């Protein structure tokens, strides 16, 4: 069983500028086969944008994804964890804030992401969520 966030996180980050269009962010998500990107001003994390944010906060309201910025629909000032934080702290933050992903930040710089799926794979590898997280994405 993993003890620290660094043991379960997905290293590296994929980010867009705050003024990037939702189309640009969605295309990056598709190309990287991920469901979220950080919204960053330089190296500073300002938000987290998920595929669900794009669908629910923009497209469902009829907003034009070519003209709406990532910053306009992302979750601003996201809760973050550090690589040396215990996994239990990440779980507690996810529960408290009802989020499925947390940026991992070290010395003010983003270094990875930890997801609910990452935690399931590490803490309960036989669970349905762990199985789903390990499965290859739909083509």
What does this structure look like?
It is a single chain. The chain has 139 residues and is of the alpha+beta class. The chain has one domain: CBS-domain (Roll). Helix content is 38%, strand content 23%. The protein is built from seven helices and seven strands; from the N terminus they run αββαββααβαββαα. Strands 2-3-4-5 form a four-stranded mixed sheet. Strands 1-7-6 form a three-stranded antiparallel sheet. Helix 6 crosses helix 7. The mean pLDDT is 90.
Summarize the structure.
The protein has seven helices and seven strands; from the N terminus they run H-E-E-H-E-E-H-H-E-H-E-E-H-H. Helix 6 (116-123) packs across helix 7.
Distance from N terminus to C terminus (CA atoms, Å) equals 32 Å
Report the structural category.
alpha+beta
What is the average of the pLDDT values? 90
CATH architecture: Roll
Strand arrangement, largest sheet?
2-3-4-5
Helical percentage: 25-40%
- Fourth-level CATH superfamily: CBS-domain
CATH topology: CBS-domain
Q: What proportion of the residues form beta strands (DSSP E)?
A: 15-25%
Radius of gyration: 15 Å
Major sheet details? 4 strands, mixed
The counted number of beta strands is 7
Total domain modules: 1
Separate helix tally:
7
